[in-house]
Amino acid sequence: MQRRFALMISPVAADDERDDFDDTFTTVDASAPALSVGELSTQRGDGVFESIGVVDGHAQEAEAHVHRLAHSAMLCDLPGPNAAQWRRAIEVAAAQCAPGEAVIKLILSRGVEHGPTPTAWATAAPAGDFAAARRDGVRVVTLDRGYDSGASERAPWLLLGAKTLSYAVNMAALREAHRRGADDAIFVSSDGIVLEAPTASLILRRGDTFTTPAPTGGILHGTTQLSVFEYLAAEGFRTAYETIPVAGLATADAAWLVSSLRLAAPIRAIDGAALPVDGGITASLNRYLLSPRN
Ligand code: PLP
Fold first, then answer.
1. Which helix (H) or strand (E) holds 53?
2. Tell me: the pLDDT tens digits for 111-133?
3. For the chain, what is the mean pLDDT?
4. Is the minimum distance from the CB of 270 to ligand 1 under 6 angstroms?
5. How many Cα atoms sit within 13 Å of 120 on the Cβ side?
6. Which residues lie below 8 Å from residue 60, measured CB to CB, with a gap of 6+?
């Protein structure tokens, strides 16, 4: 796909049972202005989103992404998305993707200030080139997220488990990682518990056991991590959600950042100390992640 594709969506109620949604979609010119200046997503980052990997026209884990969109909307008190409508929007967008890797974004915003409904849209575009990260790995630094591990429960208005449009903090963390000579960051709670990367989940390997931070501490439950755990379990490995202290990072046998677009990037250094790269598992994870997944 050379060009971008954009679809404005008139959201219908979550319990609307119609089976044809095409009259709720309007294709717009993706390079032309499409949003009102009163739009709260642009003014306040007040909305939720999903980024879905597309491989050869197949949208990966579409159901898991629609499910997480609904979960994020619930945490933000946004009207629940109609799952069938968003599934259909993904199909329409995926049909615009050329062979190779692409990305579909789903956006559900609170809408225009004082307006009657949320604003919703979907886009499709070519994916970035992640070959080097998948092959050579990434150097990460740990960064304090500034909240303790009880913050999300004590203060749900921080929206720590929602995929909101307010990613300025995540992007600032990436810039800080670059300033420290690394490629990416791993957030750590102020009480020393490992969380996630600004745009990816973390998976560690110890022997034949793969672990990831439990998504109870105000982190996103990654669709890629879920998919990888299914694959690893089918291959006979043990998988587990754990509370991982920051000291547990350096002693892992191997580790990966996983996300919908980058897929599995092995971590080759943490805070300047080298970590072994498991080339065999990395290659098999990325082969699996590039195969059609539902
Ligand atoms: N954690 C954060 C903060 C993210 O932004 C993302 C993806 O963008 C992930 C984890 C990984 O989620 P997924 O595997 O669904 O892409």
1. strand 47-55
2. 998 887 899 999 999 999 999 99
3. 96
4. no
5. 25
6. 52, 53, 54, 227, 260, 289, 292, 293
Domains annotated for the chain, with CATH where assigned, are 5-126 (3.30.470.10), 131-289 (3.20.10.10)
Q: How far apart are CA 188 and CA 193, in angstroms?
A: 5
Give the closest residue to 23 by CA, choosing from 4, 35, 8, 38: 8
Cβ burial, residue 157 (10 Å; 0-12/13-18/19+): exposed
pTM above 0.95, yes or no: yes
Most informative mutation of 257, 260, 289 for ligand 1 (most atoms within 8 A of CB): 260
CB 89 within 8 A of CB 24: no
Ligand 1 centroid to Cα of residue 199, in Å, is 5
Query: Residue 202's beta-bridge partner residues?
Result: 257
Amino acid code (one letter) for 173: A
Beta strand pairing call for 209-213 and 238-242: parallel
User: Is the Cα torsion angle 39, 41, 45, 46 positive or negative in sign?
Assistant: positive
